[in-house]
Automatic annotation (TrEMBL):
Residue span, Histone deacetylase domain: 46-346
Cofactor: Zn(2+)
Keyword Repressor: yes
Protein name: Histone deacetylase 5
Length: 653
């Protein structure tokens, strides 16, 4: 590749008001228009588009920042360096993509891969992206540059040893890390910290250094119990590495999609920074995707340019500030341009990072951080201390837990969520007001809550009353306001159909959970465990089952609703009308006390029936709990319980 005129970055104070005479840090940049030629084969729109790197470059120029950096020419990666982390076959595949014989085969090849498009320029772009990251890394390691930013595409962190995926062809950052460690012992780089703040898990990078203690891989990403791209368990926090690499792989898996500066900085302060201090890297490679940025159409998170600048600033205290940033994802052009600018300004030590805004992490963020610390403290003693109660109580209340479908990667979904939230009209700031008056009234009325799924296991049901988290559950319950145990428990069967649906749930992870057909049918039989609780407690169970805060001003299901449910057989309380368990069904009476269950609404049932919402066999943890309930309740033997569930899971509606 032609050199884009390597300019010197010796800068003394200039008219921007910096101190005259202060030597600026040497920050390298690589950008090459050639990487814009990788595009969709027939011009369809795609989020990973050529303009991504153009807008970043333009922003750095407009802001007068690139002029103060050392601009390097791009260069193609060498095959032998690519083969440090990729197979010969994979390198060969990408190498030959632009040949004439492949002209007709590229679309076919791409279609067999996961989230990949290819055109005649993809090969060259991939070689330039990887080569450019290697080049910046080499110059930073040599000390010729203090730090650098390779503004490259296609991105790299999803690319596996033998496979392109997730818009990535070569794993640019992994190639650079492996090059420094294995090809350049002369540079003295013995320990590399790779930080991956792209909103997606860096699955490729994780695998490439899985057993390698020279590379500490840290990835923070949306995970949502394995339902977020690149779905599965790889990004979970118990993936800590293996053999000599055990403890050198750290995942911070968000379980909801709205994390912002406060959440990321909490992960920095309470996981990454203390571990980095212990690990003491010689250089830091940053898989700098900007798709956790506010406004990103795929990410859904809310990190601001300020947030990115603080995260980066905190990393600069290590490895003498030797940081190599490589662009990964990031699909909102304005967001990625602004975030990139903020980062380069930090690399230039341009300005003091301004004060923080007054926001706190989510409650779920603290839960994830505590789980990660617990899992990794054997390897990193600085993680061993319990976080202080004061700290973890600084949190933003979650008004409603996202009822996650398998893939919330579209703006439509985000809009749908907003609609859903406004319909539910959850008031977030009224918890202190008189929310207790209705409770006393409803505490005087008893109902049978008829459970038919995991709640049939008493310890699981008690989580909804007393709070807590039993085996198999992914998150804790707050419990009911009134924590008294059920007064009585009985088992009965009813003429309703049990079935399993949904892609995943916050409590159990990937896989379906149980529903009952809201309509009775005498050919069906469902086994239910009835708990006698108060109507007040029933409200709190209904809220928790639907991911709502129990701390509501008004009851979701009051005496009038109970009357209606008894008369009509079922009602849909407004506050849960859009949630999975939106229908309260009255199954009759027992000892003159109404029997209530909760299941999906009829309209959702119709969607399950038509296939619009898929039926799904139960999640493993869910099925185990379900079986335990039936067995420990004395209803069934283990074999019978399994057969009951299998039948419900395999019979069409
Ligand atoms: N349901 C990077 O950010 N999404 N890659 C596919 C299929 C792929 C993102 C959604 C997202 C890949 C580098
Ligand atoms: Zn990404």
């Amino acid at each position: 590749m032609a050199m884009a005129g390597e300019s010197s970055g010796i800068n003394y104070g200039d008219c921007d008001g910096k101190v005259v005479g202060k030597v600026e840090r040497k920050v390298g940049l690589i950008y090459d228009e050639t990487m814009c030629k990788h595009d969709t084969p027939d011009g369809e729109d795609h989020p990973e588009c050529p303009d991504r790197i153009r807008v970043i470059w333009e922003m750095l120029q407009l802001a007068g920042v690139s002029q103060r950096c050392v601009v390097l020419g791009s260069i193609k990666a060498e095959d032998k360096h690519l083969q440090l982390v990729h197979t010969k076959d994979h390198v060969n595949l990408v190498k030959t993509l632009s040949t004439k014989q492949k002209d007709y085969r590229r679309n076919k090849i791409a279609s067999q891969l996961n989230s990949i498009y290819l055109n005649g320029s993809s090969s060259e772009a991939a070689y330039l992206a990887a080569g450019s990251v290697v080049k910046v890394a080499e110059k930073v390691a040599e000390g010729e540059l203090d730090s650098g930013f390779a503004i490259v595409r296609p991105p790299g962190h999803h690319a596996e040893t033998d496979e392109a995926m997730g818009f990535c062809l070569f794993n640019n950052v992994a190639v650079a890390a492996s090059y420094l460690l294995n090809e350049r012992p002369d540079l003295g780089v013995k320990k590399i910290l790779i930080v991956d703040w792209d909103v997606h898990h860096g699955n490729g990078t994780q695998k490439m250094f899985w057993k390698d203690p020279r590379v500490l891989f840290f990835s923070v990403h949306r995970h949502e119990y394995g339902s977020f791209y690149p779905a599965g368990d790889d990004g979970d926090y118990d993936m800590v590495g293996e053999g000599p690499g055990e403890g050198f792989n750290i995942n911070v898996p968000w379980d909801q999609g709205r994390c912002g500066d406060a959440d990321y900085l909490a992960a920095w302060d309470h996981i990454l920074i203390p571990v980095a201090r212990e690990f003491n890297p010689d250089i830091i490679l940053l898989s700098a995707g900007f798709d956790a940025a506010i406004g990103d159409p795929l990410g859904g998170c809310r990190v601001t340019p300020y947030g990115y600048s603080v995260m980066l600033k905190k990393l600069m205290e290590f490895a003498h500030g030797k940081i190599v940033m490589a662009l990964e994802g990031g699909y909102n052009l304005a967001s990625i341009a602004k975030s990139s600018l903020a980062c380069v300004q930090v690399l230039l030590e341009d300005k003091e990072v301004q004060a923080s805004s007054e926001v706190y992490p989510f409650e779920s963020t603290w839960r994830v951080i505590q789980a990660v610390r617990k899992r990794l403290c054997a390897y990193w003693p600085s993680l061993a201390d319990e976080l202080s109660w004061n700290l973890v109580n600084q949190k933003t209340p979650t008004p409603i837990i996202l009822i996650s479908s398998s893939d919330s990667e579209t703006e439509d979904d985000a809009q749908g969520l907003l609609d859903q939230m406004s319909k539910l009209s959850i008031e977030n700031h009224q918890v202190e007001t008189a929310c207790t008056s209705w409770r006393a009234d409803l505490a005087k009325v008893d109902v049978w809550y008829a459970s038919f799924g995991s709640n049939m296991w008493k310890p699981r049901f008690l989580c909804y009353i007393q709070g807590g988290q039993v085996e198999g559950m992914k998150k804790a319950c707050v419990g009911s306001m009134d924590k008294s145990p059920p007064k009585e428990i009985v088992w009965e069967t009813f003429p309703h159909r049990l079935f399993f649906g949904r892609e995943s749930s916050p409590s159990w992870g990937v896989g379906g959970v149980g529903f009952a057909n809201p309509l009775a049918n005498h050919n069906d039989q469902i086994h239910m465990c009835l708990y006698r609780i108060t109507l007040e407690q029933f409200n709190d169970v209904l809220c928790q089952e639907n991911g709502l805060n129990v701390d509501t001003d008004l009851p979701v299901f009051d005496l009038a609703a109970l009357q209606l449910a008894e008369n009509k057989g079922a009602i849909i309380p407004e506050a849960v009308s859009n949630s999975w368990y939106g229908s309260v069904v009255c199954l009759g009476k027992e000892c003159d006390i109404p029997i209530l269950t909760m299941t999906c609404t009829l309209s959702v049932f119709e969607k399950f029936k038509s296939g619009e919402i898929p039926l799904k066999p139960p999640a493993k943890a869910y099925a185990n709990t379900f079986i335990r309930g039936l067995v420990e309740g004395g209803r069934f033997s283990e074999e019978e319980a399994e057969a009951y569930i299998d039948k419900a899971a395999s019979t069409p509606l």
